[in-house]
Amino acid sequence: MTTTIRIGIIGAGMAGQAHAFGYRNAMMAGDLGDVDVQLHTIADPNLGLAQSVAKRYGFANAVADIDAFLANPEIDAVSVALPNHLHAQILPKVIASGKHLFAEKPIGRTREEAAWLAGLAEASSAVTGVGFSFRRLPGLAALAQAVQGGAIGQVHTVRAWYNADYAADPAGALSWRYSQELSGGGALLDIGAHAIDAAQFVVGPVTRVLNSTLRTVITERPKPAAGAIGHGAATTEERGPVTNDDVALLTVEFDGGAVGQITLSRISSGIPNSLGVEAFGSEGHALFDSISAGEFHLFQNGVATSATNGPRRIFTGPEHPYFNDVAAMPGAGVGTGYAEAFVAEIQEFLRCVRDGSPMDTDFNTAVKMMRVVGAALDSAASNAVIDINTHQQA
After folding, report:
1. Are 281 and 287 in contact (CB under 8 A)?
2. The CATH number of 3-134 is which of 3.40.50.20, 3.40.190.10, 3.40.50.720, 3.10.620.30?
3. b/e per residue, 216-231, with b = 16+ CB within 10 A?
4. Measuring CA to CA, which residue among 202, 204, 184 is closest to residue 193?
5. Which of 62, 111, 121, 203 is the most exposed place for a label (fewest CB within 10 A)?
6. What is the pLDDT of residues 54-66, one digit of tens each?
């Protein structure tokens, strides 16, 4: 029996387009042959943008009225990819509509806002998931499997990072990303959400933030021109203050006792987009860097003689998670990248909608990440160790 899922997307910016790309290519997965994915509507207050995105990715309709979009009974499942401050306005409406929901991270600007939204999602019978896309890269997913399977023994030290250069130019427009009120965090949340989640995905939950340093390097920027979007938005002569962090440095403790450092920068000139996790254990270490997304590195004590012993560079292939569903050719070494991660996360969302099963990256996954962000903000303000679960000084 064929399951028809009619798709709508709210938000036609960069993230919304990535979701559209995922839906457009979702049928690469062989096990979704019984699903009829119909690309129905792109919704965005900027109707011209919605129309251009709908045309580019093959959606049948484009609208500007989001309330009318949600009232449309022809739409079964909705992706939401909006600026952070709009999620608290729109996500409750989507949940109330009864439509299946896949939300871009983060679901809230604070741990309290995220917990409130997670409570709404838990009360819904629809599938509700969050897009932690890096988890779906075959290399990172394979590394997580190896670490959790004991390949490097008991983990004692962790290093995670996300370096990007989208904010390195001081002439870049003062978008919502540079407002603490609108975003909930600078590098700490915008890109830190992915690095924190990746570290927890590989190693396990963070239990304490031992230290947190947040630094704003570029303190003011030109305001964007009306209607401008994206990192390269047109600007005006007027300037305004940056009220969140360009750089965040966290020292954390994981459940099980491992300690780690999470370094985040949106002004890393020359490194456009690099997320990585490195874990050291009693029997070896493992490394993944999204710049080389189609591979990961693994060292295991005693695998080879001392003369030839060293980390192995492993190219992802059909034996690794997600690979067969997203790779253009089903052979090891053909390479996968960030685009394929969006395809894989949408495929998983569609499977859950078809089967009526929960996503592994549900709203509670986002809450766990937001607790670390909240603790990091508290630690930076108080210069104290913060317990993740109690939000109190440890």
Report:
1. no
2. 3.40.50.720
3. bebeebbbbeeeebee
4. 184
5. 62
6. 999 999 999 999 9
